[in-house]
Design brief:
CATH topology of the largest domain in chain A: Tetracycline Repressor, domain 2
Helix content of chain A: over 70%
CATH superfamily of the largest domain in chain A: Tetracycline Repressor, domain 2
Keywords (chains A, B, C, D): DNA-binding, Transcription, Transcription regulation
Distance between the termini of chain A: 49 Å
Shape of chain A: elongated
Oligomer: homotetramer
Order of helices and strands of chain A: HHHHHHHHHH
Protein name (chains A, B, C, D): TetR/AcrR family transcriptional regulator
Domain HTH tetR-type (chains A, B, C, D): 17-77
Largest interface: A-B, 60 and 61 residues
Largest sheet of chain A: none
CATH architecture of the largest domain in chain A: Orthogonal Bundle
Number of domains of chain A: 2
Number of helices of chain A: 10
Pfam families (chains A, B, C, D): TetR_C_11, TetR_N
Organism (chains A, B, C, D): Streptomyces cellulosae
Radius of gyration of chain A: 20 Å
Chain lengths: 208, 208, 208, 208
DNA sequence: TCTTAAACGAGACGGTACGTCTGGTCTTATC
DNA sequence: GATAAGACCAGACGTACCGTCTCGTTTAAGA
């Protein structure tokens, strides 16, 4: 986020830090109330009690602004305290992720940004670094715990280990997002348990 | 799709079927070239050689039009011919689905529509009936084949069977979409094989 | 008006005379309720219970249709019965003309058509032959009566007589129209008497 | 005209005076080239090198804009220098008024505005205050000169004097407009002399 | 009575303008 | 030099009419 204030200027009126916070809060509020397509920069400025120029001085446009606004939400995601088993850890993170996706500002912004990113490589990079990649640590931490417990073997090849972590991340995040946003069904404890069982045991053995 | 011609009128000049086809084709072309945010109704009309009013006479707006345009793409998805094993069938359908998601019009439209659908219940229903639910048959057909081969047991409870099918659909579709659009990494045969192994055997046994 | 049915066709279904009447009546009604700028062909068609094509089969456009519709009103203008003096005859015709201009359909249509005619020579000719020139007979008849009574001399030069008639027509019609539509003041008996006195006696002698 | 800048704002970027002038000039040019019915706001904006929003920020629509544009023309009308007789003064002002009505932008706009004003009371008031009433001073000045010369008596009753001035204004303006726009005949010196003679001497004595 | 050809209703069609809204920039005066 | 205010250009929005067209149906005159 500090990337957008490239150099600390020595002269003139300093930028208002309060304005930054107000703008990001107003952005999230506007996303909640309006959704993506009715979300406008002018509206955010009004809500934040700020001039439009102040927005554009800090962010290049809608997309950049919203990335920062929702990144703050995703930064709150944490791995739950160690519950003793890999299955419990997975269920915990799935439910926390699902809780995040139930916030309307996250739902609408996330999908819209990904849609925009299909034709905007810079935006894609920004989303990955600000939002997506930060969540991978959850997978890595979870695996480390499981390996300590002896539930998972320690992989020799670090490259293969990274590939597997990416795969698991895509499976977990993808399944939860698809369930919540595409199928539009609740990610409740029951579904979470079924999903975790499938993920751990596989299709051939998880069905009794 | 026939929902947009509510009643077969007996009187007046009939609607041009050629215009319908030209508009849907122009819609896909515009999505490819412009992406979602620069996609405009006027541009589609011009490409299709049609007046803007003709678009609005058939579709209420961008969203409805694009749903129909991309639904035509998804209707082309077919389960590959029986390859003898469940693993091969899964890999086949994953690769076909990934191929579809590599088409820029599908990528950009799908995510944007889902984003819009988070604040538009009618749109969500339209997407489900026109696009999503139709693909579930792939899961059902694949399971039937596997059950005939004896790879999967026949479930007694039909409700539980339906829930499982939904779960598998969310996992497969979600993982592929996430890999392709969020992680923006290729869904190549190697990844597909790893994913299929994980799905069939589970996390605890699939990592040697 | 018959100019719009160029040749009596020998075959096919004949045009409905009832439709003609209904359309002209609907035209006047629409002018009353909507004024010129909100007057639309489609609305007239609906009011007349007729298809738009039926309008365009008979008239080339708004202007032509309205010319015919208001011409019917102006055809009702008659010189009042001989009241014995030129002053009384003038007052009579001024009041009748003013009564016509109080009809909203006449007010709005007349000025609008004249405005259009400034950039449409054919329309100007059509207005003159259908509306304006027909009223000149009122001036000619009035003069003839006055000459018979001896109130006005008989002019020797017929060309000069015609020029004078045109001048008087412009003065009477122009003054009444300007009073009614531009100044938007009532053309009541009092004003009519003042105007007639001025017209007969002139500025230098009419103000006591 | 200043009525459209309701309050002198203290803050924000001030409105461009250059834009105002460019728009009014473009309006007159468009009226000349296109006439009233083909005159469009978008076209004026393009001619003036201005965005459509800039037009609508200042004027509510076509009518208001054109009133201001033609009012500037009418403001140029002046009583000619004193020519020594009332007849000469009248002829002078008639010819100047006629010259104005020969400008296509004045012809087409004036009649169209009057037509619109028949169903729009606010527009009528605007036309009167911006265009019509300002010309009455010509009548008042002319009468004052004539009274000084002794050609006309000084009226005792100021109300009657006002009524007479209004009447003369309607007769002069009405006759000239009718001659120029309805009869579509030239207001040349010959016609002007005949008209002035009629106005001064009346019908009964002006015809030899 | 049976053609037959134009008139008719309905409404879709390609266009064009409307007046509004948004995006992103700029120009003021103020802080 | 940052700020609030708001004017500015550019261009898309969805609507309304225009005048034309294409249907299927109706209707009178001539065969």
């Amino acid at each position: 986020m500090q990337s957008r204030t490239p150099a600390p200027r020595a002269t003139g009126r300093p930028r208002s830090a309060a304005a930054d916070a107000a703008i990001l809060a107003a952005t999230r509020q506007a996303l909640v109330e309006l959704g993506w397509s009715k979300f406008t920069m002018g509206d955010v400025a009004t809500r934040a009690g700020v001039a439009k120029t102040t927005l554009y001085r800090r962010w290049a446009g809608k997309n950049d602004l919203v990335v920062d606004a929702v990144a703050e939400l995703f930064d709150e995601l944490r791995l739950p305290p160690d519950r003793g088993t890999l299955a419990a850890d997975i269920e915990g993170v799935v439910l926390r992720f699902a809780a995040l996706l139930e916030r309307p500002e996250a739902r609408t912004a996330l999908m819209a940004l990904i849609a925009e990113s299909t034709t905007d490589e810079a935006l894609r990079a920004r989303i990955r670094s600000s939002i997506v990649d930060r969540q991978k640590r959850l997978v890595l931490e979870g695996r480390a715990r499981a390996q300590q417990r002896g539930e998972l073997p320690t992989e020799a090849d670090p490259e293969a280990a990274a590939r597997t972590a990416d795969l698991i991340f895509d499976v977990i995040a993808g399944a939860v997002v698809h369930r919540a946003l595409v199928s539009a069904e609740p990610v409740d404890p029951e579904w979470t348990r079924s999903f975790t069982t499938l993920l751990l045991n596989g299709l051939t053995t998880s069905t009794p």
